[in-house]
Amino acid sequence: NGDISSSSSMQNGGTSAVVAPVTTSTGDPSVASDAGTNRSTYGSSSVPSTTDTKVGASAEDLEEAKKTMPTAGKINVTPLEDKTSEEEPVVYATKLEAKNAFKSLLESANVQSDWSWDQAMRVIISDKRYGALKTLGERKQAFNEYLNQRKKIEVEERRVKQRKARDDFFTMLEECKDLTSSLRWSKAITMFGHDERFNAVERPKEREDLFENYLVELQKKEKAKAAEEHKRRIAEYREFLESCDFIKANTQWRKVQDRLEDDERYARLEKIDRLDVFQDYIRHLEKEEEEQKRIRKEQLRRQERKNRDEFRKMMEEHVADGTLNAKTYWRDYCSQIKDSRAYLAVASNLSGSMPKELFDDVMEELDKQYQDDRALIKDEVKSGKIPMLASWTLEDFQAAVTEDEKYKGVSNINIKLIYEDQIERLKEKDLKEAKKRQRLGDNFLDLLYSIKRKLLLLQHGMILNHYLMIPRNTGIWVARHMLKSFLKSILPASKKGLKRKS
């Protein structure tokens, strides 16, 4: 009346064990070697007959089994109490191991995910693992879990199978050398209908969709391949043009076209492509030519700037050694440097400042410094702080100037130039004064000669004749002395002579 499966408490380490009976019948399966382990091999069992012995089945299970049998049959159930002496229990350590043993039974019986409980009962009820779980509810719960797991596995298997079928389908298409993007589906059916990879894709609509998708990708590949081939031919034609040394930046297409026609690289391209490549190459040559011009121009500009710098450096050296100063004239300086490398280099420049202009720049700076130094010293000379005389030498002037700290910045060459300027001015001044004295003396003598006859009538005419015999170039101081002496000697005698005559 109850389930044959029984449980007993085993005092072994305090562990409760689930016990399932074991039959000694030679036709029954052997005890599961590893409880709780799912086996991957699938077995099949026939529907139990009414004469089969129900191992581990309870009365409730037998009732379930009866429902699955045809109504005309009967289940011959041997009383459980008569079989107990022949059964040995299978012990499962845990409930989980018992459940896994039951699921292993379902798997080995190849129970499908769409089976009902009744269908499964017909296959598994005679197996000893059927009694691994105590109650019908536990068995049905494990059965439902198995079905869910089985469905997931079948879905994944179906997905893998479909993916493989699609991959094989594409492989079949790729292996066909005659397949092009213009092939029609009806023609494809004829070409591939005998191939098992074609039929592995079950739905005809899916086959057509896969075929069309493949054609789209094939068309892209064909276009890419054609573009690559076109690119290669253009590159080869460009190399051909570059090898033609008669093509220059100003070459015209119509003048060289006939010289290019015989080459196969020319013939492989369309007319428009040939012209485009040629024009592009001409533009490249023009840019290259412009770049070369720019480089040459830049190199020339740098060289000319270097020439000017070297010429300036030479003039700086000449300023330092006194060759070039504020009083130097270009014609004199040019005659000295006309054979120098620096002068010849800057004279050959095509742009920028020429030698005369660079010279003027230096002279402007020298003259400004000279004028500043000259004005400073000139004021000192004029004020008497530097008592310069016409008889001074350059050394005398330098000694007087360098005594004062404020003249330390004046260069020796400028001191020399200022000395020459000042000494020349003093000499000119003395010369002017001498000329003035000479002129006054000459004027006085002219006066004396003009009154010569009147003076000869005087009593002391001999004295006058004595003075008149003096040379005309004796100077004004002599004239003054002569006039003073003359007047002292002549005036009294003149008065006496006039009185006597009267």
TrEMBL record:
Repeat listed as a keyword: yes
Q: Which GO terms describe its cellular component?
A: U1 snRNP; U2-type prespliceosome
Q: Give coiled-coil spans as residue ranges.
A: 278-317
SUPFAM superfamilies under this entry?
A: FF domain (SSF81698)
Q: How does it assemble?
A: Interacts (via the WW domains) with the phosphorylated C-terminal domain of NRPB1 (via CTD domain).
Relate the protein's function as given in its record: Binds the phosphorylated C-terminal domain (CTD) of the largest subunit of RNA polymerase II and functions as a scaffold for RNA processing machineries. May be involved in pre-mRNA splicing.
Tell me its family.
Answer: Belongs to the PRPF40 family.
Instruction: From the Swiss-Prot or TrEMBL record, give the protein name.
Output: FF domain-containing protein
